[in-house]
Amino acid sequence: MKPRGAARDAQGCASVAGGRTPGATKLPVVILISGRGSNLRAITEAARGDLPIEIRAVISNRLDAPGLVYARNSGLSTEVLDHRQFPDRVAYDNALQKLIDSHAPELVLLAGFMRVLTPGFVAHYRGRMLNIHPSLLPAFPGLRTAERALEAGAREHGASVHFVTEDVDGGPVVLQARVPVLPGDTPETLNARVLEQEHRIYPQAIRWFAEGRLKLVTDDAQGRAIAKGPASVAGGRMPGATNDGTYATLDGQRLKP
Q1: CA-based nearest residue to 130, from 27, 50, 26
Q2: What is the pLDDT of residue 22?
Q3: Which of 97, 107, 115, 160 has the greatest number of beta carbons closer than 10 A?
Q4: Which residues are annotated as catalytic?
């Protein structure tokens, strides 16, 4: 990959969202889950080491999410906001936003949060919300990714960390990890290998953000695709921009093939 400086375009029309001042104290985060919370566990264990974050709350839309048990046993603050108690997505997301903001996070982490988010909610956390997805985006957005990869005859599969935008699973990818599809693989065996990589790359992307190195940039002048396709880097992959003109930068350099 050959990164290009892109804090601003030639007309000075790029806007930057998210990121932190290098050397700041621990980054306050809120983690959203719906299920077992395996990525929550990976993030928590990294935070017990040298990942410079403070987990202020773990919030789930499901009372029976197994990840809540792990969070409580780890001494983390937990809250449940049941989506079934709200008339529509907008009402739920408005309540969720208020709950998240009561913890004053600088970053929101989706870790198996199985909800399609409304545009207003996404806009509120623009440049301050990351997600982990079990595929090599833009391939196989949505559900059943391993099964679909096998059905398509894919030779490799993987995981992607990306900024969250209104395009579901379509925000700028900042880091990817690949695994080969092996003869005799089932969705279960393939998912297991991908999950190992998720636990490796999600803390790494969070670290970049916490250190003030990772940002989301919008090219207001173009508002269209700026870069497509993946680019290799040590320890993962970093593609470029999306079709809404947003892209990620690392250390002030545009992540572009």
Answers
A1: 27
A2: 57
A3: 160
A4: 133
